[in-house]
Design a protein that fits this description.
Distance between the termini: 40 Å
Shape: globular
CATH topology of the largest domain: Rossmann fold
Number of helices: 11
CATH class of the largest domain: Alpha Beta
Length: 325
């Protein structure tokens, strides 16, 4: 339902997007990840028709975004990060206005507005002015406007921005429910949120795609390298960091926090083939007379995948012709 093929976009000398290709199918939630400046926003603006690509082609629901621009835009619902709306309008009036822009008949608009208000939990504020709402409610008004005309494709840019934990859980469930019969593209920098919501993750770095896979497959590549977290209190007999550094298979030990009571939190990075080091860490601390209050291994997450891709890409980027010194 979304097809991006060899798309590039430059602004002067800045290559914002470089030969990007990916697809998102019906019934699928695809997460588009990347740090600031990675090219996510530019890619979304090209998919939604705000910007034309310099090279390549994009289609939405089978419609080319250049040759069939109006049909492509009618086929998608878009929630921008800022969720702009007319602050002087009431919530229901604004949704009615949006429905009229889409050419929806009056009876269809009424049913669609009622459904959108209910699905986005906006019934209690349906008569209030948008400008008087909290940022979280305004974000939900933007989501209601995006789904109002029941488009086959949804593009959501930071959909949980400014929402409280309960609203985040509700939005996550709503996105999964919408994906039953739609294509959903979610752009976000909140990695745990993407990990829990998306079927597939596309990671962009410096305008290029460095990964396109299911979260479970991406995480499989970093298992075995996740750090250990050790909270210790050094005694007169010795230091936990010194004792742990001497363990075979430990690559690095870093102090990441110290409490007022003198407890130190250490991050212990293992070598890739080290195996489970928890027993060795506990034994080394005990033999050194160091009291351990906590010892656990961090669960692997997309943040580790993302950082590893960044680190691996830096030498390659530096070697590219014309790369900045």
């Amino acid at each position: 339902m979304i097809s991006v093929r060899e798309v590039s976009k430059s602004f002067g000398r800045v290559n914002a997007v470089r030969s990007v290709s990916f697809e998102a199918q019906r019934g699928e939630v695809v997460g588009l990840l990347g740090a600031n400046g990675a090219g996510k926003t530019t890619t979304i603006r090209m998919i939604t028709g705000f910007l034309p690509p310099d090279q390549g082609s994009i289609s939405v629901a089978g419609h080319d975004t250049l040759a069939e621009s109006v049909a492509a835009r009618r086929s998608l619902g878009y929630l921008p990060e800022a969720a702009p709306a007319y602050g002087e309008m009431g919530v229901a009036d604004y949704l009615d206005y949006r429905g009229r822009l889409y050419g929806m008949p009056r009876r269809q608009r009424r049913a669609a507005i009622a459904s959108a208000l209910d699905r986005c939990e906006l019934q209690e504020v349906r008569s209030r002015r948008i400008g008087h709402l909290s940022r979280g409610f305004r974000q939900r008004v933007g989501l209601a406007a995006a789904i109002l005309h029941d488009p086959p494709v949804l593009i959501l840019d930071e959909p949980t921005s400014a929402l409280d934990p309960r609203q985040i859980r509700h939005t996550r469930r709503l996105v999964r429910d919408l994906a039953r019969d739609k294509t959903v593209l979610v752009s976000s920098h909140i990695l745990p949120e993407v990990e829990q919501t998306c079927d597939r993750v596309v990671i962009m770095v410096r305008g290029r795609i460095l990964a396109d896979a299911r979260p479970a497959d991406l995480l499989a590549g970093v298992r075995g390298t996740e750090p250990y977290i050790v909270e210790t209190q050094a005694s007169a007999q010795g230091s936990a960091a010194d004792a742990i550094r001497r363990i075979a298979g430990v690559a690095a030990v870093q102090v990441i926090g110290t409490s007022a009571e003198g407890w130190e939190t250490l991050s212990v990075t293992p070598e890739p083939s080290a195996g489970d080091l928890r027993e060795a860490i506990a034994r080394a601390c005990a033999e050194g007379g160091v009291l351990v209050r906590e010892l656990r291994r961090q669960a692997p997450g997309l943040e580790q995948v993302f950082l590893r891709l960044l680190e691996a890409d830096e030498p390659a980027e530096a070697a590219r012709p014309g790369a900045a010194a």
